[in-house]
């Protein structure tokens, strides 16, 4: 008996097959690109990516171990939604959370939705990165699409639906709409009425780990999945990452090194609304019952990918053609000492606390003798400094972090993880399986299909920590000197960068 985990991210999808003991038997990956049909727009071609997901599944199911798949679940990126009909027709592209469309509604919504009341209901502060503003944009500017769509599904529910499940969304992803009632575990009539959106366009809400159907016979035949494979509700990818690396109790936090670099702490009781609002922090259901999470993040992984594509394009393509990864060679070039280059990581809209969209990335300290390895290190340091500034503000919320679990593609780099430990001044561990989103989804599949009696049993059985990184406190002090310089950069350049953004 085996379990299938699918992890759909912003730039790629991982499909992995696991034994119930937590051994990854097979995996497949498909990368895709964000489409930008107009300046400020960012979307994914849902039909094309669904085809790639099926390709990846087929790569797994040709293996003999796949004959015993009992259940599957999907973890996915957060706010992006896809319009579909109940006949499983894909009606359009998926607008991503950093797509500028919808910004025009923030003023009106800010006057309509009292921010404390919104937080009490939904656990989020108003912003254009949630599904709400994208739905309003579609309703106004694509009314024929809005009317024709039977449901708008998040990627986890979309993939499950296309496989044969009922249209559903787990609590963690439902939260990313700004339309979900956190305490009731259902759509909020109050928020739907205030925003003018229709509840019938939304799927039913369920806890993570809930059976929501079985793979349709024709899909099972096409993808060579066992008949009657159980489909279980998944989770927001950051929650799945937490499950997949064993971050299920307070004190520990995920340090996800993917497209987003995201810290995910766990807590058991909702913090005071204003303490969270002032720090731009959300409150979201964990995949684990009776647990909450929050997200501290930026677009760090995308910036590292930009560096790869800009500074090492030829090496990247040569390595890819040979079936290799260029990142180990690039990280081998970074210096041991803190970089002389300080980077403001505003290459795209930022995360907490301010969700800045009218800025730009900045590199300070460039010289004629600056090698590209020092630029890469400056990028990674800047991304980490950004997160540290957010973590330094946590005590007032009652959320504590005593250790981190590093997961995601970037965590393959010992140098990157050690740098994070040195800057944060806190120990890091790395699990044996760093594709924690896919493993977390497989654990949910196991819980929903009865393989495990609880999430705790699933985690204890399938998650294995393998590496430990202690912070070098001498290096920490050196980084803290650079950190003080970093903290001055945005206040000094705020007005200029905002003026430049307005004029561009």
Stretches with pLDDT under 50, minimum 5 residues:
none
Whole-number average pLDDT? 96
CATH class category label of the largest domain = Alpha Beta
Secondary structure class reads alpha+beta
CATH topology of the largest domain: Nucleotidyltransferase, domain 5
Helix content: 25-40%
Total number of β-strand segments? 24
Work out the radius of gyration: 22 Å
Tally of discrete structural domains: 2
Mind explaining what this structure looks like?
The chain has 504 residues and is an alpha+beta fold. The protein has 2 domains: 325 residues, Nucleotidyltransferase, domain 5 (2-Layer Sandwich), CATH 3.30.420; 136 residues, Nucleotidyltransferase, domain 5 (2-Layer Sandwich). 39% of the residues lie in helices and 21% in strands. It contains 19 helices and 24 strands. Strands 15, 16, 17, 18, 19, 22, 23 and 24 form an 8-stranded mixed sheet that branches. Strand 15 and strand 16 form a beta hairpin. The radius of gyration is 22 Å and the shape is globular.
Features:
504 residues; alpha+beta; Nucleotidyltransferase, domain 5; 2 domains; 6-stranded mixed sheet; 39% helix; 21% strand; globular
Task: List the topology elements.
Blueprint: E1 2-8, E2 12-18, E3 24-31, E4 43-44, H1 46-61, E5 69-76, E6 81-84, E7 94-95, H2 106-112, H3 115-122, H4 131-141, H5 143-148, E8 151-154, H6 155-163, E9 168-170, H7 171-174, E10 180-181, E11 186-187, H8 189-195, E12 204-206, E13 211-214, H9 217-223, E14 230-236, H10 237-244, E15 251-257, E16 261-267, H11 273-277, E17 284-285, E18 292-293, E19 296-298, H12 300-311, H13 313-321, H14 327-331, E20 342-344, E21 362-364, H15 372-391, E22 401-407, H16 414-424, E23 428-431, H17 436-448, H18 455-462, E24 465-469, H19 473-503
Parallel strand pairs: 1-5, 5-14, 9-12, 15-22, 22-23
Antiparallel strand pairs: 1-2, 2-3, 4-7, 6-8, 10-11, 13-14, 15-16, 16-18, 16-19, 17-18, 20-21, 23-24
């Amino acid at each position: 008996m085996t379990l299938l985990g699918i992890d759909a991210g912003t730039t790629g999808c991982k499909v992995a097959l696991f034994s119930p003991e937590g051994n990854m038997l097979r995996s497949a990956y498909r990368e895709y690109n964000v489409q930008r049909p107009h300046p400020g727009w960012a979307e994914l071609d849902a039909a094309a990516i669904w085809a790639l997901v099926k390709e990846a599944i087929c790569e797994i199911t040709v293996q003999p171990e796949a004959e015993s798949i009992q259940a599957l679940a999907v973890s996915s990126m957060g706010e992006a939604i896809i319009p579909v009909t109940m006949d499983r027709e894909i009606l359009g592209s998926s607008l991503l959370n950093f797509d500028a469309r919808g910004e025009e509604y923030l003023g009106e919504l800010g006057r309509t939705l009292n921010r404390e009341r919104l937080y009490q209901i939904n656990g989020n502060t108003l912003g254009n990165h949630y599904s709400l503003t994208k739905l309003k944009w579609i309703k106004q500017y694509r009314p024929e699409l809005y009317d024709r769509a039977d449901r708008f599904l998040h990627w986890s529910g979309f993939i499950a639906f296309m496989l044969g499940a009922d249209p559903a969304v787990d609590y963690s992803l439902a939260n990313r709409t700004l339309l979900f009632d956190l305490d009731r575990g259902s759509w909020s009539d109050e928020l739907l009425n205030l925003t003018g959106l229709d509840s019938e366009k939304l799927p039913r809400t369920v806890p993570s780990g809930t059976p929501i159907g079985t793979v349709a016979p024709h899909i099972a035949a096409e993808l060579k999945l066992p008949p009657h494979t159980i489909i279980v509700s998944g989770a927001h990818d950051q929650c799945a990452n937490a499950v997949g690396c064993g971050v299920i109790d307070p004190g520990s936090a995920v340090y996800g090194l993917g497209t987003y670099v995201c810290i995910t702490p766990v807590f058991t009781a909702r913090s005071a609304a204003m303490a969270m609002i002032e720090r731009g922090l959300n409150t979201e259901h964990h995949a684990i019952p009776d647990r909450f999470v929050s997200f501290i993040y930026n677009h760090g992984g995308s910036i590292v990918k930009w560096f790869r594509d800009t500074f090492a394009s030829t090496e990247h393509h040569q390595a890819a053609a040979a079936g290799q990864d260029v990142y180990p060679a690039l990280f081998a070039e970074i210096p041991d000492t803190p970089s002389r280059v300080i980077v403001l990581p505003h290459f795209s809209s930022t995360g907490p606390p301010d969700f800045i969209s009218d800025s730009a990335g900045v590199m300070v300290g460039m010289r004629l003798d600056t090698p590209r390895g020092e630029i890469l290190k400056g990028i990674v340091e800047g991304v980490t400094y950004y997160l540290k500034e957010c973590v330094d503000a946590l005590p007032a919320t009652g959320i504590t972090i005593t250790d981190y679990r590093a997961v995601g593609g970037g965590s393959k780099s010992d140098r990157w993880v050690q740098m994070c430990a040195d800057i944060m001044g806190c120990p890091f561990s790395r699990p044996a399986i760093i594709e924690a989103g896919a493993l977390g989804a497989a654990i949910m599949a196991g819980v929903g299909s009865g393989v495990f009696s609880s999430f705790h049993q699933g985690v204890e059985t399938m998650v294995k920590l393998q590496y430990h990184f202690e912070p070098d406190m001498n290096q920490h002090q050196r980084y803290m000197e650079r950190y003080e310089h970093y903290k001055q950069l945005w206040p000094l350049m705020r007005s200029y960068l905002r003026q430049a953004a307005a004029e561009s």
